[in-house]
Amino acid sequence: MATKTIIIIGNGMVGNKFCEKLLEKSSDFKLIIFGEEPYRAYDRVHLSDYISEKPLDELYMSSEDWYSSKNVTLHLNDPITYVDTRQKKIESGRGIILSYDYLIFATGSSAFVPNIPGIEKNGVFVYRTIEDLDLIKAYAGSAKKGTVIGGGLLGLEAAKALMDLGIPETSVIEFAPRLMPRQIDHAASTVLQQKLQNLGLETLLNKATSSIEGEGKVHALHFTDGTTLDTDILVISAGIRPRDELALKSGIVVGPRGGILVDKYMQTSEPDIFAIGECALFEDMIYGLVAPGYEMAEVAATTICQGNKSFKSFDMSTKLKLIGVDVASFGDPFIEEPYARTIVFEDKNKGIYKRLNISPDGKHLLGGMLIGEANSYNMLLQTVNNRLVLPENPEDMIFGERSASGQSASTGIAALPDDALICSCEGITKAQICHAVTEQNCENADAVKKCTKAGSGCGGCVPMVKDLVNITLKQQGKYVRNVICEHFQLSRQELYDLVKIHELKTYDEILNSLGKGDGCETCKPLVSSLLASTWNEMILQGGNDTAQDSNDRFLANIQKGGTYSVVPRIPGGEIRPDKLIVIGEVAQKYGLYTKITGGQRIDMFGAHLNDLPAIWGELIEAGFESGHAYGKALRTVKSCVGSTWCRFGLHDSVSFAIRIEERYRGIRAPHKFKSAVSGCIRECAEAQSKDFGIIATEKGWNLYVCGNGGSKPQHALLLASDIDSDTCIRYLDRFLMFYIRTADPLMRTATWLNKMEGGIDYLRNVVVNDSLGMGQQWEEEMEKLILVYTCEWKAAIEDPNIRKRFAHFVNAPDERDTTVQFEEMRGQKKAMDWNIPSITS
Q1: I need a labelling partner for 435 at 20 to 30 A (CA). Which of 232, 306, 446, 504 fits?
Q2: Is 279 annotated as a binding residue?
Q3: Can you give the residue range of the structural domain that contains 199?
Q4: Do 671 and 746 belong to one domain?
């Protein structure tokens, strides 16, 4: 039988995937690909990484020799210009004429460009291809104000690109009354809008652009409501249009609003011509995500190979990290009563919004959305897709476990059916992943990815793949190593020990000695936290500053409107009148809003970046030091007045709180931690809601550990009773070092205990009974950390290289950011809720 020829028009992700799927099934075909771009297939999902200097080589879907090794002919920079469906021939722009047995349209889509007067001006771009991004990068160098038309997924990605290019003022224009109108509701949009504003991105809703103004190049946008927005560069991301023009010219049927009409086998009106991806119209739907495109590629390849597989309406659930903010929607996110009951959780302080839509009988999850924190997305999606029966308290699925039973969040994965689709991009089921572990010796997520390709698309399923691998290994009785990431094949605990053994002091030293590659957003902050916990050195010295969290880099909390807050340490809440006067004088001099915090400190808000070193200097001169309100470190040790003043007090809780706070100040840990000391069982300091709390008894102190407040409150549990002060501190040294050594990144002590096998009894055995024989070593390690403590504010203002970082503008270090605006509130100032200085009526 003669080898049949398949010609693929389009060399994007879906066209490339079709080649892979077909080659997996048969080698009896000759594949010829025509692409109009000069690049081989690349990952458009992570196109924004190219803006942040990710090499193009890392975006390619296949290596250069893959095509020759698979006997695939690739024509780049050569679009097909003519298709003769009767003679089954094509002609390319370079004059190549070929015959085909099957023809695949994988032409994708183009950016929809609205017909706005002035759209042709220089400085107006679309955001679709590598070439588009190269043009944007070249033009953006002189831009100070950037604008994106379109507040959907791609629009927000484009806005992130402009911010990554260093454009200080970036705005998003959206015609609809909310952001991402196809994925999230109004309440979720409001939370997302506030999160983006805090990150420096302005959003303008209900805006229709009437014209683009400027002499030859864009200078401003005029809106139909009469307002104007100045801009130096404009990116259009207002939707997509299927690339169906060649099919239409060739007589192939297209939809009335565009798109190549296909049946469930991806066949067009010509049975030997298929359409897949964003150019295909199936049941009046254009699918704009990569996962359904990959499924279409699988269906078309199966049909050509005489198999039996059809395309069905595809789940459009999605999870993305937009400008550092988690955004996810799943199932039917908008269904309302009487067809559903809705559970909503909103935390405006942290910028978190979660919505679950429950069936009227309360048994099944129908859909929902997550903004700001989406760790539960994968399990929620599986619960919808597999019609799993909901637990007695469905809200636990977004609020977390409410007991300290030690159950892992992954326990629900084991109950998923074998055919549960884990990786929708590649169509990989739970059974396939488990088979890779049990039969093909894949013992980590990276090995499973290489074997099955699960997680190689958008990457959203990777956490669930890791959990499945671990569960399957445990079921086989194998030891599970919780490695950090692909760059460090070590657990955090193993890395901690090796850093101490080899006395490594910087991220680069650790990566060169113990890791590989260039690192990532997972390992960089983890290693930085680990270094701070191990050596307790000033975090902005030694080349470790770039990997620190944002607040740590500025030694202050970044607040609304581009302002910063200053929180000096006030151990135990005790402060002399003269120091209280200094705080008042500093706040008055620099125009700061002042508030007494829940942890018995005074917070000063509204500081300009330039003023931070001067403010710190005046506070340090008065005897204050950094309160580490910005760090993953000890925050406060709250206290009541105890026996000093209170008639019920049994012991001097203030003095003991001061002793503890001054002992553990500045020590970094996997998460922030808080404490309190109460002078009697009336518990006025609320010690049992802290990471460790101490309550006076007639015989000494009771020590409680692993509690926390917040959205998931948990009472601390009794670790030791009726102990003296020195014994209490000795136990605390052991407890904190055990936590620092073994907890995962960003894990609170309560969660750490919940996941600890044996729970509080095991922890008591380790800390109090010294069952591991580590007590003395941990006490000595704590002493070393205490001895090297230094106030980070003082170190920053005394080091010229660090001090010069505290400026808004490098070329004008004394100039303030004029976009920071305030308004009056109860005799003080506050950051304005909305700041769009360039909008004029």
Answers
A1: 306
A2: no
A3: 111-238
A4: yes
